[in-house]
Write a structure and sequence with these properties.
By secondary structure, the chain is of the alpha/beta class. It has eight helices and twelve strands. The protein has one domain: Metallo-beta-lactamase, Chain A, CATH 3.60.15. It has helices spanning about 25-35, 70-75, 75-80, 90-100, 135-140, 155, 240-255, 270, and strands spanning about 1-10, 40-50, 55-60, 105-110, 130-135, 160-165, 175, 180-185, 190-195, 205-210, 215, 260. The N and C termini lie close together (about 5 Å).
Length: about 280
């Protein structure tokens, strides 16, 4: 099994969203931070080439329309707040086609969560089975004022083949430092781990490579430095307590398996130095 990162554009959001000495902050602090100098952060998704299950995408990155009309996909408020940028042809669909892959070749899309930068291009994969945490799906579909909670309901309001996973079933087991995981194919190749906190139903993937594990952590960590003890937390979290618990599971995993790869959700240096593929 191999994994490839696909960077689909950037956001330049208020810095406090990723790094806050005080932890979670309110809306006014976010708006004040919006006046500070900003650095672009990558918006990735991941292509898994599975030896038996075929091609799997983790998240979708930014929709192709972001290059010319971001508000049509993200809405005016998110476009103003996050300052999206995308070069023509940088979206996941275009990059997959450069690899000789069409949307119908993607067997499934597994979402770490449904925030607007992770589900933006969901409409481009109508033939795929879409896998999402049941808690995340329920929250994303019902929360009031979704645009202010990180969701853009128009992105995923399609009659696609959605399948939800639950971490309250008898198929859940622990794996290494992760308390609740689901073995997706029953062979240990891909485990979905419950890592709530950033969003209500956030989940991460543990992929078994040839000689080590790789954790696709979504936004359980924004930047690799957050794996270090006493690092600043993000300024925006759905549940700070659960976020800290999930973060601690990731930190323990890094301590126990230092050769493992743990992706950082929006770390520019991490993706600049990423190999063409992990295998």
């Amino acid at each position: 099994m191999t994994v490839e990162a696909i960077v689909t554009g950037t956001f330049s959001g208020p810095p406090i969203l990723h790094d806050s000495p005080k932890g979670e902050v309110g809306s006014l602090a976010v708006l004040r931070s919006a006046r500070q100098e900003r650095e672009p952060s990558p918006i990735p998704c991941f292509l898994i080439r599975h030896p038996s299950a075929g091609l799997i995408l983790v998240d979708t990155g930014l929709h192709p329309s972001i290059a010319s009309d971001p508000a049509s996909n993200l809405g005016r408020f998110t476009t103003w707040l996050m300052r999206p940028a995308q070069e023509p042809g940088q979206d996941a669909l275009s990059q997959l086609r450069e690899k000789g892959i069409s949307p119908s070749d993607i067997r499934m899309v597994i979402f770490t969560h449904l925030h607007y930068d992770h589900a933006s291009a969901i409409s481009e994969f109508p033939d795929s089975t879409l896998i999402v945490n049941a808690v995340e799906w329920q929250y994303a579909a019902t929360v009031r004022r979704p645009d202010f909670k990180g969701y853009r309901r128009q992105q995923y309001d399609y009659a696609f083949d959605f399948r939800t996973v639950s971490f309250d079933s008898d198929k859940v087991s622990s794996y290494a430092s992760f308390g609740r995981t689901l073995d997706l194919f029953g062979d240990g190749s891909i485990r979905i781990a419950s890592t709530p906190g950033h969003s209500p139903g956030h989940q991460s993937l543990i992929c078994r490579l040839s000689e080590r594990d790789m954790v696709i952590s979504g936004d359980a960590i924004y930047e690799e430095k957050q794996l270090e003890p006493r690092a600043n937390l993000p300024g925006s979290m759905h549940d700070e307590h659960n976020y800290k618990r999930s973060l601690q599971e990731l930190r323990l995993f890094r301590q126990t398996y230092p050769s493992a790869v743990i992706t950082a959700g929006h770390d520019a240096e991490f993706y600049e130095n990423a190999p063409e593929r992990w295998e």
